[in-house]
Amino acid sequence: MSSRDSGSVRDSVLSSTSRFSSLLSPAANSTSHTSTFPLPSATPALPPLPPGQRRTSAIYDRPLVKSRGAEVSLGAWAFLFAEIVQYTQKRVSGISEFEKRLSILGYRVGARLLELLPLRDYIYPVSSLRSPPPPSRTLRLLPILTYVHSTLYRYLFGRPADSLERSTDNDDEYMIGDDDMIITRGVEVPKEMSDLSCGALVAGIVEAVLDGTGFPSRVTAHSVPSPEHPRRTVILIKVNPDVLAREAALGGGK
């Protein structure tokens, strides 16, 4: 490009910039025409409702604290879980793979619950009108298992689990018992798949919570029916050796 061409391009850019600056400058020429845009008018008032009817608000307009105790329909929950089971069944070739996939889905849910529950409890505490102190990290094993047994389970199913026990054979195994797991009420396992436990979804949730709080464990679900509770499910928690070593350093069960 010649010097004459470069000079003309520079003059064109400068002139364009000066014209753009004059539009933004408050000291623009009074002869220039300024376009004005009318402000949007206020939202018109909604027409009055007939006598006996009440206007309902959208779910997004409701405060979080008032919807805390809302429950999901058991039918909707069962339908969703049935679709999850059917979707998974078409993509596996064995019971172990079936349970593993359900556990992976539950793990994703548990990772999100771990962030949601402390935040909701901090903003809207259940047991007190005063704001509780910020959540602190739990270093002991029993408090976190109690948290899973009570707080987490109550948030998911509206009630705590039926039991929390420690294995008498292995010191690294704990069991959370559910005599009638809600998500398995509408599931009929065929005889050829009697070893299958669809509670693996819940086991994945529990495993994600324990891993996220610093208690890495291997969590599995097992169907343990009894004459009194034919749908009893046991969530077996096998904690990592590092967790037991830390527990012993902190004082064990004292």
Automatic annotation (TrEMBL):
Superkingdom, natural source: Eukaryota
Composition bias type Polar residues, residue spans: 27-37
Residue ranges of the TM segments: none
InterPro entries assigned: NO_sig/Golgi_transp_ligand-bd (IPR024096), TRAPP-I_su5 (IPR016696), TRAPP_component (IPR007194)
Signal peptide positions on this chain: none
Keyword set includes Endoplasmic reticulum: yes
PANTHER family hit by this protein: 41-2 PROTEIN ANTIGEN-RELATED (PTHR20902), TRAFFICKING PROTEIN PARTICLE COMPLEX SUBUNIT 5 (PTHR20902:SF0)
Protein known as: TRAPP complex subunit trs31
Organism (species): Rhodotorula diobovata
